[in-house]
UniProtKB/TrEMBL annotation:
It comes from the Eukaryota. One of its GO terms (cellular component) is myosin complex. Residues 42-212 form the TH1 domain. This is Unconventional myosin-Ih. GO terms for molecular function: cytoskeletal motor activity.
Length: 212
């Protein structure tokens, strides 16, 4: 009886694995990565588990032809609308985050505002609260203006896609209270996370970016 039970379980597992489609396998692999990053660390994660990740939020045809020309030769893997906050003044601007096989692009209409090669990516930070803020940390060199501050509607999906493509899962930090980001030219800024009745992102009187 015990031997038959083991054989039966192995047979059921084998049948299930053989029945998993390539698309379903990718979905499960991404969910495993998301679990390793966010489980028990960020609010809203448990509610996101049952929601499948989209392949992309915008199709390649939705991008401006000039942008497609500029990133020609790199296969586009994921595109999503984001809000980017300026490093100086923290003004909110509508942008697109475009992830290819080798780089992340912050796009404004027909312009590429910033390109981040995955090989140079220093880290990714997000808070433990339910906000959608993501900070992409870049190296201190002349090619980069500073760290990228984004707000994403689908934060678990976006961070997971970026981690999988960049193979930088271990560089993600889920922080509490506050985090530091690089403005440029050796300067740093501070972002503070707080709990409130309504979600807000604003520049406080002390000059810090406050996320509620």
């Amino acid at each position: 009886s015990e031997m038959l039970q083991k054989i039966c379980i192995r047979n059921l597992v084998r049948k299930y694995c053989r029945g998993v489609t390539a698309e379903r396998k990718v979905q499960l692999q991404q969910k495993v990565v998301a679990s390793a990053i966010f489980r028990g660390k960020k609010e809203g994660y448990l509610q996101s588990i049952s929601q499948p990740f989209a392949d992309t939020r915008l199709k390649e045809n939705d991008l401006n032809p000039k942008v497609l020309q500029l990133i020609h030769g790199e296969k586009i893997k994921y595109v999503t609308p984001v809000i980017k906050y300026d490093r100086n003044g923290f003004k909110a601007r509508d942008r697109l985050l475009v992830l290819t096989q080798s780089s992340a692009y912050v796009v404004e209409m027909a312009k590429i505002k910033q390109k981040i090669d995955y090989a140079t990516l220093k880290g990714i930070s997000t808070s433990n609260l339910s906000d959608g803020i993501v900070v992409i940390h870049v190296p201190e060199d002349n090619k980069q203006k500073g760290d990228v501050i984004l707000q994403c509607e689908h934060v678990f999906e976006t961070v997971t896609k970026l981690c999988v493509l960049a193979n930088k899962q271990n560089l993600v930090k889920v922080v509490q209270g506050s985090l530091q980001f690089r403005i440029g030219a050796g300067k740093e800024g501070t972002m503070v996370f707080a709990v409130g009745q309504e979600p807000q992102v604003f520049r406080a009187k002390n000059g810090q970016l406050t996320v509620v």
